[in-house]
Amino acid sequence: MEVIHTISDMKRFVTDSQAAQKTxxxxxxxxxxHEGHVSLIDHAKEENDTVVVSVFVNPLQFNDPNDLxxxxxxxxxxxEICAARGVDVLFMPTVSDMYPKxxxxxxxxxxxxxxxxxxxxxxxxGGVLTVLxxxxxxxxxxxxYFGLKDAQQVAVVDLLIDNLNFPTILRPIPTVRxxxxxxxxxxNVNLSEQERQEAPLxxxxxxxxxxxxxxxxRDQQVILSHVQSVIDQSHHAEIDYIELLSYPQxxxxxxxxxxxxxxxxxxxxxARLIDNVLVxx
Amino acid sequence: MEVIHTISDMKRFVTDSQAAQKTxxxxxxxxxxHEGHVSLIDHAKEENDTVVVSVFVNPLQFNDPNDLxxxxxxxxxxxEICAARGVDVLFMPTVSDMYPKxxxxxxxxxxxxxxxxxxxxxxxxGGVLTVLxxxxxxxxxxxxYFGLKDAQQVAVVDLLIDNLNFPTILRPIPTVRxxxxxxxxxxNVNLSEQERQEAPLxxxxxxxxxxxxxxxxRDQQVILSHVQSVIDQSHHAEIDYIELLSYPQxxxxxxxxxxxxxxxxxxxxxARLIDNVLVxx
Lengths: 281, 281
Known about the structure:
The structure is a homodimer. Chain A folds into two domains: 2-173, Rossmann fold, CATH 3.40.50.620; 186-280, Pantoate-beta-alanine ligase, C-terminal domain (Pantoate--beta-alanine Ligase, Chain: A,domain 2, 2-Layer Sandwich), CATH 3.30.1300. Chain A is globular. Chain A has helices at 7-19, 35-47, 65-70, 75-84, 95-98, 124-139, 151-164, 193-198, 200-214, 220-231, and strands spanning 2-4, 24-29, 50-55, 89-91, 105-109, 143-147, 169-173, 238-246, 259-267, 272-280. Chain A is 39% helix and 21% strand. Chain A is of the alpha/beta class. The first copy, chain A, has ten helices and ten strands. Chain A starts with a strand and ends with a strand. Chain A binds chain B through residues 7, 11, 14, 18-19, 21, 102-112, 129-130, 133-134, 137-138, 140, 159-160, 163-167, and chain B through 7, 11, 14, 18-19, 21, 102-112, 129-130, 133-134, 137-138, 140, 159-160, 163-167. Strand 5 of chain A pairs antiparallel with strand 5 (105-109) of chain B, so a sheet runs across the interface.
């Protein structure tokens, strides 16, 4: 595996791959890799000649500088994981290479916003657009891989690629879960033992609601109330939001039909967890 | 020459060119081609295996709908010119293919704005960013060609490519002029006979000021006044702006040094003309 630290070296690798007519599967990450990322890598490996994983903690998508500073890093472990899964290039650019000066332009979203995680992270997804546009231009991927746990991020990338005609294919990959249903996340290590025991209630609530919809329930209040009542069995969980929206448009639904997302965010003492289910009605 | 009307057909052509390892030179235009465009095409032809010219009047960059409706069209003549110059593909997408629905995002500039033509056309260059991003993604050009007569547009494209790491090379091409110095422009046909006789004063004024700078003049007021006094010899010209800025940054200069642009816009009864000179100090 090649570890590349500069944009110019990365571009050289891409030019060579293109000359050799090789497809590139790209997995953008902020590092601290877990089994969710490994699943993205494995899919990319299976579906492309070459796999590039980027590890870059993008300052543009953090509204809170403390949050940026506290973001966990594990460069050695990330490198080992990528090497073990057969990644061809681990791309770890520096902030000064990615943002050598103040940007002279901004990208911002007017749709798929004002709901879910955008409520509490204003500006976050604009920063995501910008860094992905840069990375897509540097790596020129045939296919890009994102986990559906961050369903709003997938919706935003879908809009970015579609609106701007990016020559790449979005591959959303299903959420990887613990045996008890809890979605894999770097943040799970911050749960206390008691919280960890209660956290699977989140997915249980979403799954039960999904079954209700599949069996014909169309009253959104009934569905949302059921999710809330199941999660409320936890003594430590504090619900941030539970929302039922069209997907990937993320718009409120007068009547439940088409593809919908049921998503929630739940706060524990030192971890805020998100999860969702997609239902085709 | 192939005339392509849909994005999907254009993408197919690009994929085939890439498979054949051919470089693509791209000349984006709004049609109504004149000798300035022909010069861009000729440069592209000389420097690439394949030349693509787009003709698309981009609604996003017009702040005045009347201006958009009045924009001149000459599809047959454009087609003949492109065919005669050896263009490989003339790409003429429809508005509904380029903008099938309201965009869900915006791109806007924070630098290189508030000066020159941005003063009177707010939002114009944001629309330029968006359409070029789309066209660059559809055509994936090795090199893109823009005329230096629209020096602010060149500066904006330079910033776009640089900020977002586009895998393409910007080729700014010198302004093509009439024998008497007047910059070629589609708008010149709207000059009256008398105005046409006076219009070369614009380039004469800029050229004389350039010589003054090259000979050591550094007093910006003296330089700007000279340009004004020469253009004021015209009875019909009304000066919109005369500006002296760094290039391509387009920032005011405390002292004249480095690469500078001296640019002006002049209004006649039915035509607003722009022109500029670049000086390396």
